[in-house]
TrEMBL record, chain A:
Domain Spore germination GerAC-like C-terminal stretches: 195-367
Location(s) in or outside the cell: Membrane
Record's keyword terms, sorted: Germination, Lipoprotein, Membrane, Palmitate, Signal
Protein name: Ger(X)C family spore germination protein
Membrane-topology descriptor: Lipid-anchor
Protein's UniProt keywords contain Membrane: yes
Main location class: membrane
Source species of the chain: Paenibacillus mendelii
Family under the similarity heading: Belongs to the GerABKC lipoprotein family.
UniProtKB/TrEMBL annotation, chain B:
Designated name of the protein: Spore germination protein
Family per similarity comment: Belongs to the GerABKA family.
InterPro entries: Spore_Ger, UPF0353/GerABKA_families
Transmembrane segments: 275-297, 371-390, 402-426
Source organism of this protein record: Paenibacillus mendelii
Keywords: Membrane, Transmembrane, Transmembrane helix
Phylogenetic placement of the source organism: Bacteria, Bacillati, Bacillota, Bacilli, Bacillales
Any Pfam family: GerA
């Protein structure tokens, strides 16, 4: 009885001691943009903007912007400015300016990952240019945070950009033998535009894959079941495919590692990446007569050459900047002993690895006409 | 006060004077004297049928001589009694007592009082038998006997209440029901010491294992087909005179979520309905509380497409979500209670007033958010999916506790509350059997006929909770 009474008293008296967050008194950050501040603000300063969507009028938002050393410092400034308590549990995407990304993102992402209120599925996006400016602009589409979010979701689905969120970035950053990637965004004439894929060396942005090549790049990064590709190569480099558009693409990747020396010390690796690509032909403008099977076979072998040439070129570029977004290192690591793996940094080994791509493109469906 | 009638010595001989003294100042006692043969009849005026009274007593005895009277009294409808006490009991039961000198006879002239068999209002079904129990216990027993034509259907007659002396019948099927449980039930009913019992739902509260639990521990129903299925499952049923409810035991918590139509429809549909009721139970118990927890503490959990709408409708509400929810839940309960007390025609008006006026206007006036209206309304609707009215009322009450806990501690409070409910349920016993059968103790065969309604060829065994020795009920193959 006494226990019950003391419990009751505790419940009544302790009701004030609670971390109440009633939704109508909160301002939800939906997007954060980080940039390096210009030199007039001093070194190490960040330019941080947040966007808080408003319920009324629809698609309106509150945009707060400040200069601070850390993002938490910026939070205090924002709290002083906003009438509602600022929370980041509804954060959807984080934008990083290109110059900041070139310096390294880990310390920013670490802050975000540390906060248990932030979902690990928050998108990480690199902006080619000024992230704050991109966030401040008005777009005729939805409010910018929803626009960014939905753009990235749909583009991820069609495999044009990798699905990079806080979790995958952190995982790839800490995992030996793979480096993170992130979508690149830029401000176009009509609105936002995907500007390709950012490749990282550890947490530093080092290279960019152009948006036209994004799907070819995603052949290398894993398996997928849907996607469309346009190929346009008109004989300039020995491959004449004509203009092709292929749909319903599915791709399977397999990586085999061969040690060229008997000791298997991990320094002489030969990597073969096999790509099994299936798709149906949607559009073809070119010299071949595709109703004939001989020409179909020729087209397939042309496509094979095209894919191999392009992807191998990507790999040369990655090796040049010591970035391994494909995760060849993961396969290399499992092919050797831990001691040998630890003997050298993968980033130093990677440029010397011989990588070959073997493509196997098959056109499942060529159209309605067939000549026997 | 446990007794009002003075003790009678068993040997007290029957006499008119004693009988009239017993019923002094009762306006409905009637005494009729036949001077020709010195017969005196005593009976309670409105308990006896006037037709029968005229046919069996007034006409034959009016002009009968002594010899004829003696002959008449040898008829089998008259039985001789030799104590005053028996006479009084008989008169109270609607019989007439005939006195001649020191001798007395009784004759049953009782007329049926109460309504005829009609559909149960609280437990109506679409498919299936439409008769319901009535207030007359014997008629109810007859309805059961009509369905179970077996001499193994045995009854034990008991009486409860020192003043009301309400007859109670415990019925079971010999060879199926567990005799230990039967004895336990009889002992408990015999152990009741109270003035009056009017209803089966009242009786069960005097014999249950956990009198302070909010959950009903005996399944009561007004449907004969349900009671018959309980009997054949090996459960023991109990009829109370004057109550259209009949209860069965031992009862499991999940029995309250079954309805007879589960068996009258195809098994896939029956299964779907049972799952629907369990979903309804979860919605009733937790939906509003979850709304309170999420809007007060866990804004992270709201899908972002819905967030702004919710904020917008919440922003005009002056109260914190906890008070807002309690206010609306109380309003709904007021509506429900008002609708239950009013005749059907006015009840409909209440529904319209409640639904349209309060629902629409409360949101427009900034009294509540429209998402809360959805939460409250759907949990009210979901509560009516539970077939047992008594269980559904209990669950609606628990909901308030969960809302308050959710308002104080958020999702933690919600989980703590649900934890308490589960612990409490696991602790309840019914005649010594576990209330949470077949979850604890686990019995997979029982699952086929509790959470789902398996096809009949799979429902081979009687429920384990009945502790029957005769376990097989179906031998059919697919």
């Amino acid at each position: 009885m006494r226990k019950g009474i003391s419990l009751l008293i505790a419940i009544v008296l302790l009701t004030g001691c609670r971390d109440e967050k009633v939704i109508d008194r909160l301002g939800f950050i939906s997007t954060i943009a980080y940039d390096l501040a210009g030199s007039e603000q001093g070194n190490n300063m960040l330019h941080i903007s947040i966007s808080i969507p408003k319920a009324q009028p629809f698609n309106e938002r509150v945009l707060l912007s400040t200069y601070a050393k850390t993002s938490k410092e910026a939070r205090f400034t924002f709290s002083r400015q906003n009438n509602r308590q600022i929370v980041n549990g509804q954060l959807r995407s984080v934008l990083f300016g290109k110059t900041l990304a070139e310096q390294g993102l880990w310390s920013r992402i670490d802050t975000l990952v540390r906060d248990p209120g932030i979902d690990s599925e928050v998108s990480v996006v690199v902006v080619s240019g000024d992230a704050n400016a991109l966030l401040k602009s008005k777009y005729p589409q939805y409010s910018e945070s929803r626009y960014i979010d939905e753009l990235i979701q749909t583009e991820t689905k069609s495999r044009d950009i990798p699905n990079t969120n806080l979790h995958s970035f952190t995982r790839d950053y800490f995992d030996d033998g793979i480096d993170p990637t992130a979508p690149l965004l830029k401000k176009g004439d009509m609105g936002l535009e995907i500007d390709g894929i950012a490749l990282f060396h550890e947490d530093r942005y080092v290279a960019r894959i152009a948006p036209e090549d994004a799907l070819l790049f995603s052949f290398l990064t894993g398996n997928f079941h849907t996607g469309d590709i346009t190929v346009s190569s008109s004989g300039g480099d020995g491959i004449d495919t004509g203009d092709i558009m292929m749909g319903s693409l599915s791709s399977k990747r397999s990586i085999t590692i061969r040690h060229l020396d008997a000791l298997r010390d991990g320094n002489h690796l030969d990597v073969t990446i096999k790509l099994k690509i299936r798709g149906s032909l949607m559009e073809y403008i070119g010299p071949l007569k595709l109703q004939q099977s001989a020409d179909q076979i020729k087209l397939e072998s042309d496509l094979n050459k095209y894919v191999e040439k392009k992807t191998e070129a990507f790999i040369r570029r990655m090796q040049a900047v010591k970035a391994d977004p494909i995760g060849i290192g993961l396969y290399a690591r499992s092919s050797m002993r831990y001691k040998q793996w630890k003997a050298a940094d993968w980033h130093d080994r990677f440029p010397h690895v011989k990588v070959h791509v073997k493509a196997d493109v098959k056109i499942k469906d060529i159209g309605k006409l067939q000549q026997s | 006060m446990t007794t009002t009638t003075p003790d009678h010595k068993p040997a007290q001989p029957p006499s008119v004077e004693a009988a009239l003294a017993e019923f002094s100042t009762c306006i409905d006692i009637e005494q009729r004297t036949f001077p020709k043969n010195a017969i005196q009849a005593v009976y309670l005026l409105h308990l006896v049928s006037q037709d029968q009274l005229y046919r069996e007593i007034i006409r034959p005895f009016m002009n009968a001589t002594d010899d004829e009277t003696a002959h008449l009294l040898t008829q089998s409808v008259f039985s001789e009694v030799c104590s005053h006490c028996e006479c009084v009991d008989a008169i109270l039961n609607g019989k007439a007592a005939l006195y001649q000198g020191n001798q007395a006879w009784i004759i049953d002239l009782a007329r049926p009082i109460g309504r005829t068999i009609e559909q149960s209002e609280t437990e109506s079904v679409i498919a299936g038998p439409h008769d319901g129990f009535v207030e007359n216990m014997m008629e109810n027993l007859a309805v059961i006997r009509q369905r179970i034509r077996s001499s193994h259907l045995k009854t034990v007659e008991l009486s409860v209440g020192e003043v009301t002396k309400t007859p109670v019948i415990v019925a079971y099927i010999e060879g199926i029901a567990n005799p230990d449980l039967l004895q336990a039930l009889i002992d408990r009913i015999k152990g009741i010491e109270t003035d009056a019992v009017y209803e089966a739902n009242m009786l069960v509260q005097m014999i249950d294992d956990n009198p302070n639990s909010v959950f009903p521990q005996f399944m009561t129903t007004e449907r004969p087909d349900v009671i018959c299925s309980k009997l054949t499952a090996g459960r023991i049923v109990c009829l109370v005179d004057g109550s259209p409810s009949v209860f069965s035991c031992p009862t499991s918590f999940f029995e309250f979520f079954t309805s007879p139509d589960d068996y009258y429809q195809r098994w896939q549909l029956g299964t779907a309905l049972r799952l629907l009721r369990i979903i309804g139970f979860l919605i009733t118990i937790g939906f509003t509380a979850f709304y309170v927890a999420v809007t007060t503490y866990h804004y992270e959990m709201i899908p972002h497409t819905m967030l702004l709408n919710l904020v917008e409708s919440r922003s005009r509400v002056p109260f914190p979500p906890l008070f807002e929810a309690l206010l609306m839940e109380t309003t709904i309960e007021l509506l429900r209670e008002a609708g239950a007390r009013l005749p059907t025609k006015i009840g409909q008006t209440i529904g319209i007033v409640g639904g349209i006026v309060i629902g629409q206007a409360a949101v427009q006036a900034g009294f509540t958010s429209n998402v809360l209206i959805i939460a409250v309304a759907s949990s009210a609707i979901a509560s009516f999916v539970i077939p047992s009215y008594i269980m559904s009322a209990s669950i609606r009450l628990i909901r308030f506790g969960l809302i308050i806990l959710a308002g104080i501690l958020g999702n933690l409070g919600l989980i703590v509350g649900i934890g308490f409910i589960v612990i409490h349920l696991a602790g309840i016993t019914n005649l010594g059997t576990s209330y949470l059968t077949p979850v604890a103790p686990m019995n997979k065969m029982d699952w086929l006929d509790s959470f789902i309604r398996g096809p009949f060829y799979l429902l081979r065994n009687r429920p384990s909770q009945t502790r029957t020795t005769n376990t097989v009920k179906t031998k059919m193959r697919k």
